[in-house]
Amino acid sequence: MKPNQFKSLFLLMALAVALPSFGQGLKAFKLKNGLSVYIWEDNTKSDVYGAVGVRTGSVNDPAEYTGLAHYLEHVMFKGTNKIGTLDWSAEEPLYKQIIAKYDEMAEEADPVKKEAIGKEINELTIRAGKVSVSNEFSNLMESMGGKNLNAGTSYDYTVYYNSFPAYQINKWLEISSQRFLNPVFRTFQSELETVYEEYNRAQDNPGRVQNQFLMGKAFEGHPYSRPILGLPEHLKNPRLSKLIEFYNTWYTPENMVLVLVGNINAQQVSARINAAFGRLPKKGIPERKSYPELEIKGRTQHTAKIGYYPSVALVYKGVPTGHPDEKALDIAMELLSNSNNTGTLDKLVISGDLTNGYAFLNTLREQGRCIVSVMPLYDENQRRFESNKSAEKKALKAIEQIAKGEFPDWLVEAIKNNICRDYDLRMEANESKANALMEAFINEADLSKVLNYKEEVMAVTSEDIKRVAKQYLTDNYLALYIEKGKTKEDNKLKKPGYKAIEPPVGQQSLYATQFKNMPIGQVEEKFIDFSDVQTKKLNERSQMFYTKNPENNIFSLTLRYGAGEREFPKLGIAANLMNDAGIMGAYEPQQLKEELSKLNATYSVNADDNYLYITMRGYEETLPQACQLLARQILMPKLDAKQLSRIKGSLLGMRQQRKENVPQLNQALSQYVRYQDKSDYITELTDKEIYELQIAELTGDINRAANYEAEIFYCGSLPFDNVYE
Q: CA distances (Å), 374 to each of 345, 382, 399, in order?
């Protein structure tokens, strides 16, 4: 062993003071300043995904200054007193004046004087912009091959992340740690305008408005009830000094984690991690406030006119992340709706009693809720939606069935297997592994929970599920009714329209010069080798493409037929029907869902302009049986008239509101710019054509499209010849 290798190994052992190391390439240790480090080695990957997470989010915003955590995320890209600095001696006095001016503006009540102070801040910002490069951090990350540089703020955490070439680990560690040393929140005024625009876009998005209504009622009395972006009155009255105070309080090493996943060796990089992130000064862990749990007694209804379509959300008490009941309760919610569409709510949708419906367990660090959401059926003949009250009654019957424990054991096993399969699929990606580690850190969970996730899921029994379903899905719930209505325009924030900053052209900081000259490492990279793809003709019009899956025993099978909506304009609707079709003379739609679920296989059908796609995933031990069912369905699909009525009603109902739907207007305009008269919004079926759709013609379209040439793409671990047979 070389001396430097021995040193790295010794350091790694010495630093592992609080967290053990795990198998499967996962290593964990703490630096002396308290910062946690999680490394998941995978030398089959070509790059590394790096993230720095902070155990703070909007939940920690001061009540009188909401939005600070999100504001801070934005300005953490603006550099430090080294990154982006051309002349700190000239910039620092301007920066201090800007901080003071924001305090002055926040305390000023006169709107005219406030505006005048804002203009003074604008002039100071322009002057500071001439001696700094606020986008230098992002530019340097890109210069070293960094991809997808971004950040996110949630209720409980803030995370900064991107992927990068494995040989650039030295540079990534240097700049990613440097950004937390004496950050300078440059161009704060410009970022305010960016956040204003983000807030205004959210007001135009009915989904986000409705979600905020739901969170506001579901977590009333807790900071989870507030928007992550912040309340509008606080966004209009910011203090840069409070932002700095928030950073100093919550961005402490003991409250932070470094996550690295991919082509990386923990032993080789531990010393470099310590040299880079060990520079962050040790601080104490900030004290957290506690909040009482919301008491829900009986049925409590709240109504908001903020939707394009009616819907109902039923909210029950849940559990926080990591609670002993979490996995059992999660499965109970999957018994209502799941990706196999075998839940009690799914059956109501398949049978045409609801337009849609889903259920999920919303777990956060401090509290959680069980949420069931349904949209009433649209009556195509009367051209109106059924009432929210009728939709609630249907949903309650589906919930009652689970609360009473009326579900078969085979369905529980199928759902557990499905959860484990989805976990395996997620763990194929660096980012998903990093997110699992990040979640464990944020919620102070043992890392063994990540590695043993599947074992814990499979250990849940039907009795566990019956107990939690009875305990949580009770008569105590919130009924949140969404009715048609628009967000008031006066809710939006008016952007002040300050003068733009004119950054210096062609200049860079001393730090940037030194950074670009840093040496890069030597790492063996893994690239996709397309020569590994095996092909073979199945018949004159069909060809199979095979790729080995080195990760697990999950297969992915995609059939791509050479005909799409250009040839058959109604094929998209036919494909939608195929997702809930049966097999003529053999299985009703719900029966087929159950048979596939028992095989732990899921499939989806969709069409675009050029192709019809049928995709199936599952475990390879049931591949022959799953393929037989899929082949029979393609040859003899049993499309359901009630399902067609539901789809027709949904399409016609949603079309009524399109001219008021800002995101959809944006999409329509974008399509017209790109495709002109060939835009989907121009070539789409008319209302009359939709109304007159018949099962027979849609079945015919599926049969005709499936007669075109087919390309079959398979990824799995079975030998090529076995798959071909």
A: 9, 20, 12
